[in-house]
Amino acid sequence: MSPGQQAQPKLPIPGVKNLIAVGSGKGGVGKTTVAVNIAIALARLGFRTGLLDADVYGPNVPLMMGMNQTPTAVGERIQPLENYGVKLMSMGFLSPGDKPLVWRGPMLHSVVQQFLRGVDWGDLDYLVIDLPPGTGDVQLSLIQTAPVTGAVVVTTPSDVSLEDARKAVRMFEQVKVPILGIIENMSWLQCPHCDERIDVFSTGGGRRMAKDMGAKFLGALPLSPQVRIGGDTGHPVATFGPEDKRGADFYAIAKLVVEGAAEASSVAGPTMTVSD
Amino acid sequence: MSPGQQAQPKLPIPGVKNLIAVGSGKGGVGKTTVAVNIAIALARLGFRTGLLDADVYGPNVPLMMGMNQTPTAVGERIQPLENYGVKLMSMGFLSPGDKPLVWRGPMLHSVVQQFLRGVDWGDLDYLVIDLPPGTGDVQLSLIQTAPVTGAVVVTTPSDVSLEDARKAVRMFEQVKVPILGIIENMSWLQCPHCDERIDVFSTGGGRRMAKDMGAKFLGALPLSPQVRIGGDTGHPVATFGPEDKRGADFYAIAKLVVEGAAEASSVAGPTMTVSD
Prior knowledge:
The structure is a homodimer. By secondary structure, chain A is an alpha/beta fold. Chain A contains nine helices and twelve strands. Chain A has an eight-stranded mixed beta sheet with strand order 5-6-2-7-1-8-9-12, sandwiched between helices. In chain A, helix 1 (31-44) crosses helix 9. The longest helix of chain A is centred in the last third of the chain and has 21 residues, at 248-268. At the A-B interface, helix 5, helix 6 and helix 8 of A face helix 5, helix 6 and helix 8 of B.
């Protein structure tokens, strides 16, 4: 097939069995928090797991994973970093600090490709990709060229977030990426003083949206200061293990992702895998 | 100057005195909520005000402003809609519903230009621009070609939001757009049950960041279910007027924006204005 044709073949990434995209229509809904904690949970559950931070403009994975080293290259292959059993790559490792990346679309395209195929991921059961929010260039590049097994869409229950999340679901559908499910994050807040429940951003909209769009509902997660502090300090709550109630929800979701990915793979038929 | 040269002249927008950009490093921090309420407050304070929703991927202004009509054109000029005394233009008016905009950078560039110069804004004291979050194509296009008077940067007090907000400030500085100030949004939540204060996303980081970066601190806003409901229902809290405590904070900030814009204009020297 000549380059420039519409239906490019989605070449497999050597050694990577499942590619899980975590997306959202709107930013600030906890997409990276979900991606980081799912990746840690998958690793703790015994799967070989990588996490690619594709949010090149706002790469928060290094902060949340407590890593800020500069990766090295062996030959032409960038070596991923690793923490909590998860192999990691992020633009934040290459351009740390306050410097903004004022880049245009075509440059982003090549960065994402470099991260997908130029990083020495090794053999992975799951490569979780933290997409930038929205339906822009990076998402397009990725989805059009990578064999994404399925997508998880994160939203809050607020109407503005749901409005944008529906667009993200439609985007994945248009490019034939199966939706593994919807997560309603910041679903409620338990007051630390009186223990009463506060519906900060309304509640229940994520579950309704999943039903309306024929997608699986993966769960409702509270707005939890502990989860936020875990991310801000580089110790995500999933690191406390599946038995600790602070991060248990993420293990339940990780298991649903494993189930969903298996279903999506079986529907899609056997995949060609290439090993080095 | 020939096209393609680096330092393009920033042509004034005929009739528009001040162009105020509202940006954030991260999404979901309340940037649109701030932009909408500042615009309504400016209009209520007697200024001729417009609001351009440049967040073409996630245009939430129509929902928040309670408008979903399709704008008409007179000749070749798109007529803005108007609500609460504010002239409005948004991609959401042109592409309503769930359909995602899967667009690449160059297409966005022309949309933003069309919105800036092809819309019949008339005479405005303030045109508030709700930028998309981050430091990407749309921000670049806008800042490189429009005479932005100054920028307001919105952040939450969480470390991940502050990390991205610093990048946004640096981006504006690099392209010589004055920072009018920093707003710390979702600074705390007052429990509706026990009235105690909850620091959901930590607190105080916005003020510290402003100090560290030599920028003005415009104020800390609580995470308020009333403000969120106002946006979700198309009745932003600023519509209740400056005396109502639900929206009073936005009037205080609007006045600081007016002061800051006057200072920025006087430092920049007299601006050439062109009228039709």
